[in-house]
Amino acid sequence: MEFHTDSLGVTRPPSKRSDFCKWYCALNSKQLKALKMSDFSMYDDDPKPFMFMGRDFVYKNKAQIKLDEEIKVAMDDYRERSRNLSNFDAISRPKISDRCGGGPGPLPITEDVRLRLTPLCKFALDKYNADKDTHFVFANIVKSTWCPGAMYYITFLAQDSSNNNNTSLTTFQAQVSNLRPAPKLYSCAIKT
């Protein structure tokens, strides 16, 4: 539906508030306790997903039901593909599942990310060296995954500084959270 503004001679699209007004008027015409699923039938064919959780029911329009089915299919496929992967090798969650949360996902190594993760790698390596009485020195970040809440699963390279003849790099994996006031190390080990 379009609104005509005669004084300006232009046609403008309907306000986004019109959907809200329909919904608000439907709610105010009845008490929340008295609402039924049929009160939301005006949204059945709406192209935008819509859901309302009542006290005794959950209403979903056709677009929401279709979206829920697409999310389920995408997440089932994701779970199958990631079933045997460790947190260090996590794959990206489906784009459609942005609202679903979940486990760790890949973290692209940009210069900003490298600056954030390098101190965490060095922190993990210092703890490893202290525990194992070794002398590894951080070399480079290979890859990283992360979970919301500042939990990082970092794969990085280090070189043993006590052996001058050995120039080979050793691959480490560390699980580190970057919470204030200080990072916390959960694990750091040579990748096997």
TrEMBL record:
<dbReference type="InterPro" id="IPR006525">
    <property type="entry name" value="Cystatin-related_pln"/>
</dbReference>
<dbReference type="InterPro" id="IPR046350">
    <property type="entry name" value="Cystatin_sf"/>
</dbReference>
<protein>
    <recommendedName>
        <fullName>Cysteine proteinase inhibitor</fullName>
    </recommendedName>
</protein>
